[in-house]
Amino acid sequence: MKENNALIILGMHRSGTSLLTGLLSQVGVKMGKRLYAPQKGVNEKGFWEHEDIVDTHDELLLNLGSQWDDLLPLRDRWWKDQAIQPFIARLDKLVRRDFSDAYAWALKDPRMCRLLPLWIPILEARQAQPTFICMNRNPFEVVASLQKRDGFSKEKALVLWLSHSLSAEFHSRGLPRVFVDFDQIVKNPVEVLSKIEREANLVFPLSIKEAKENINDFVSPDLRHHKADELLKHEDEALPSMAHELHRIFLEMTVENNGRYELIDNVAADFAAYRKKWNVELLEQIRNLNQEHADYRIKFFRIYTSWSWLLAKPFWLIEKVLRKY
After folding, report:
1. pTM for the full predicted model
2. CA dihedral over 33, 99, 185, 258, signed as positive or negative
3. Phi, psi of 142 (to 5 degrees)
4. 5-278 has which CATH code?
């Protein structure tokens, strides 16, 4: 039996990755010591995200002049930059701290779709046996969810879905992976978990049969707030057409996980051509604004995590209370 099984959940924000990761927790897969708390109206059953790792991802993106909802691609071979190496070391340390003795463990953060190149050597260094679980959901449902939660335009949400999905597929290509679909999870979570167990060639710490009641209780109809057939039509526009085609290909790969690379590469080429049509001067302004915004957030992050701030924090809280009276 394999040891040190790492299940890496890849999927765009609002695509059901929290649901999938929560289900994995029901069969004994470890998630780490510190997870982000559930949030009412957003993810009431939990995000299932490792707090220290997500915070490191955010800080790393800031140092690249980016952030989670950046429409621009990261620069070429960014993971080779010397400035990125301390983040790789920090992530490696967190994996050793929380998962060194785990038989099966999982990481879920949508940022990993873009940051996957730096994770491959970390997993190799830890001698992990990774399986990349590629989460697919109708992009127009993701769009509706992002519009409601973040106020994004349809175009921005589709660009983010395409960039995350294409990046995750490209950087996990040729590695052990499983494609799953949100609709399939909602309809039959036991079947999807059985598929992951089988294709990842592992045995979950808790048997699916033993956990079946908890698995079915975890998936409830109200987890699905948006249905594509009630929302957006497939308009005769480049961006929705690309998203629809990629979603269709990924659906096929949930049934037969091989090939189709030429079809995916065609979508990637169309998406790259679409991006090239963006106004060059405007893009440069966006990059500069992103960098300026990142610089300020880095300064704030350093102040907020400094010893002086942490030591003074109780006094700030007392002052805040006293101001009410």
Report:
1. 0.84
2. positive
3. -60, -45
4. 3.40.50
